[in-house]
Amino acid sequence: MDRRDFLHGAATGAAALAIGRHTRALEISPKDDVIAKIAGQHDQTVKMLQDWIALPSIAAENRGYPQGAEYMARLARDAGFQRVDLIQTKGKPGVFATLDAGAPNWIGIYFMYDVKQFDPAEWSSPPLEARLVDKPGLGKVIVGRGATNTKGPQVACLAALHAFKAAGVKPPVNIALVCEGEEEIGSPNFPQIVFKPEVEAALKKCLGVIIPLGSQALDGSVEINLGAKGVVELELVSSGEKWGRGPQHDVHSSLEAQLDSPSWHLIQALNTLVTADGHTPAVAGFFDKVRPLSARQKQILEAAIPKRNEVQTKKALGVDRWFKNESFHDSLVRLVTQPTINIEGLVGGYTGPGGKTILPHRAVAKIDLRLVPDMTAKGTLDLLKQHLAKHGFADIEVNMSGGYDPTETDPDSKLVKAQTAAYRAQGVDPLLWPRLAGSWPGVTFTGAPLKLPAGQFGMGHGDGAHAPDEYWIIESANPKVAGMDGAVRSYVEFLYACAT
Amino acid sequence: MDRRDFLHGAATGAAALAIGRHTRALEISPKDDVIAKIAGQHDQTVKMLQDWIALPSIAAENRGYPQGAEYMARLARDAGFQRVDLIQTKGKPGVFATLDAGAPNWIGIYFMYDVKQFDPAEWSSPPLEARLVDKPGLGKVIVGRGATNTKGPQVACLAALHAFKAAGVKPPVNIALVCEGEEEIGSPNFPQIVFKPEVEAALKKCLGVIIPLGSQALDGSVEINLGAKGVVELELVSSGEKWGRGPQHDVHSSLEAQLDSPSWHLIQALNTLVTADGHTPAVAGFFDKVRPLSARQKQILEAAIPKRNEVQTKKALGVDRWFKNESFHDSLVRLVTQPTINIEGLVGGYTGPGGKTILPHRAVAKIDLRLVPDMTAKGTLDLLKQHLAKHGFADIEVNMSGGYDPTETDPDSKLVKAQTAAYRAQGVDPLLWPRLAGSWPGVTFTGAPLKLPAGQFGMGHGDGAHAPDEYWIIESANPKVAGMDGAVRSYVEFLYACAT
Description:
The structure is a homodimer.
Chain A: H1 3-10, H2 13-21, H3 30-40, H4 42-53, H5 67-78, E1 83-87, E2 94-99, E3 106-112, E4 131-135, E5 139-143, H6 147-167, E6 174-180, H7 190-194, H8 197-204, E7 206-212, E8 223-225, E9 227-228, E10 230-239, H9 240-243, E11 251-252, H10 262-271, H11 295-304, H12 310-317, H13 328-337, E12 340-349, E13 358-359, E14 362-371, H14 377-390, E15 397-404, E16 407-408, H15 414-425, E17 431-433, H16 443-446, E18 454-457, E19 462-463, E20 471-476, H17 484-499
Parallel strand pairs in A: 3-6, 3-7, 7-18, 8-17
Antiparallel strand pairs in A: 1-2, 2-6, 4-5, 5-20, 9-16, 10-14, 10-15, 11-13, 12-14, 19-20
Helix pairs in contact in A: 3-6, 3-17, 4-6, 6-17, 15-17
């Protein structure tokens, strides 16, 4: 019961009597005070999100730096962090901030202030305008780049701290905030932020680290991910220059008769990367380090699978069938346990409308590899390079742009217990899920030397990460799904759960 | 000897005496009168080319229509064509024009008024500005889209007719001019122009058809092509929608674990199209209709190969070695005799800078096929479709955007004799070459029902067709290579050669 419910009840005589009889049970706690502030600052919270969406930082396009970091620092200061430092790296700057409430416990929070690229032509409303739109069945949402990934959830987290300030209540736990601006290019410089001595020292004191995320599905259910796959993003570049065969600039396509083609060379190289099923990685040694799920992980997975909705999932993805026509169960086991080689993009020669009779001197495949424990980003990249060399493609450049190792968190850790308690405080019984198929640089926290529990946390819902019309629910049509205020409250609950 | 040389000679007493002794041989013919006009109209000719380059028609981008056709019609009228008709087609309009000089013979001339797409960022001067630039070793050139392919040569041809007008001399042969605006997309509607009854009737009277082209190499040598390969341009499109597997819109790349990928599907399909050498077409039946060179064609080819310059060719193409490390001789035999499957472009998913973690729902390969006799565009397209279906890729769309059959012309035809005579009149002994590896819609003339000889003709030199910094020589640094005026003269010579 939050304070608004209490005050509403107090307006009736019967409730007033009831209060008289149970004074101790209904005493207004500091937490209630904080929660009571959320509704009143709703418009300000929405505006905070809209203003932030208007200022995108996109590392792949070198857009919005260092402004994005400076803005992030301002947001942290406004939310009550006493110490806020910009951390320079070899790439884009990060931000480190601490809020020392004099509490016994520390919690780490990870933010990314960057967002994915976008093409406004593909959007139904301008991606930086963060328009409030009525979305049938969902409620009122904000449509914009970064709305759900992850400015919406991050603003909810900051708004929780604003609510503490407004209520004049100290947070029950101290907070170490680490922010980076290169998550969408694979966090190549994140360790430079985390392992700065003062940052590492602060994180060492933490019981774990969360990244704010709208974790609710459309039915209101929530999963706690006990880890995430690792990732390597890279480009494979085939060129006449490096190959020493074919042309070194684009030439007329008729000359293909007497020349080798860097494009065919790339196609042949790519074709060796997966087996005949067009899916299973065929890079030698790719599966050698794959550790099977533990009995505990299997149990957690099998308990969770029946609660997933196949029809809803297929509809959301625009999918008729799973790989190999597998059952939903088997496809989910695959999702959790299998490493992948994915083609993000193909770019070669002429890419405009119609055709152009050239033999291109260069062709590129944009690839991502998803890794499961105990694969490593570096080890897998090496395997790929060895594989290409062995198959006669040593000339093909393998340009890694970013990536990190997989991450795992103990289901019995204090962090997972706090996450669980916070969700339950809002009436949701979270489902444990053994491993997110997506990736985040959690290994920086879960790996040596910090070895902290780490994971996603937060009520609320959004969709369209990396896609057009990305959205985040502000006012939810479904009472089981939190809107912005419910998401804000989840961070208040979480901070209290961390204090115990 | 042209008229300028004569007049120059006449200025010396000794020459005047010589003239007295050889009056008949040095009599000024009407042809001399015409040729004498060329130098005087030089600036006007250059301006005609610059003005035309400034107005590009690009069918793939639907740019410059119907203005390009209307401009073409004006150019024809200005050059003295009495009848000039715009011919509507299902695509872009064509132009048909006749210049009836009351002569016994007719010659057909083919123009394309369209040009290839361009990206100004890749050019050293604006591609529509047609700047006069000093090009070391070459002389003064015009840099612009269409400069050599083929507005430069076409302007030279038109300027020849202006010279007739200026000299008050009737052309010695009647001319039927057919123009299209879709050559660069494979001339999908050209037969609708050629086989309009009045156009077909005019062409039937012609001894053959030429397309103006700067045919000189940098050493001044000239080839007469006795045919050209055919071409099919097409897109192969792999999509979740058509395949019924994988996503129907782009989704997060982590989902590749449980989903099929239309991009991998395309890679696998492409990989079946060539053999392990990454070059030789592997489509079943692709070589069935390939007719070996005749003894006469072989003889022509073997006579011509030693006159080609390997070092120069490699340098121009940016190439270190030929396919299979073959000798120049063998690679040229291959160039003439082998059909090809070339990748013009690859476009799938995310194509911008850096990466983007998506699993794309669609991937496209832009392909061209080059055909030799007796392959046909339609037959080869059918083979490709059958091949894809047989290998499990029936869902991949094969969208042909244009193309035509190969073409051949008899080396003993009147047209080839006229071409040869015209080149010799300018001191160049042309080399017969059995087959151009590039393509042009000559089959519309050489095939049934017209069955006319057809080929390229013209002095002069340019390069960079379909590439940045395309150029056409205006004033040549090498006396063996014609500049614009020499190119103009070649059309005067050609028209006279057609009259005999």
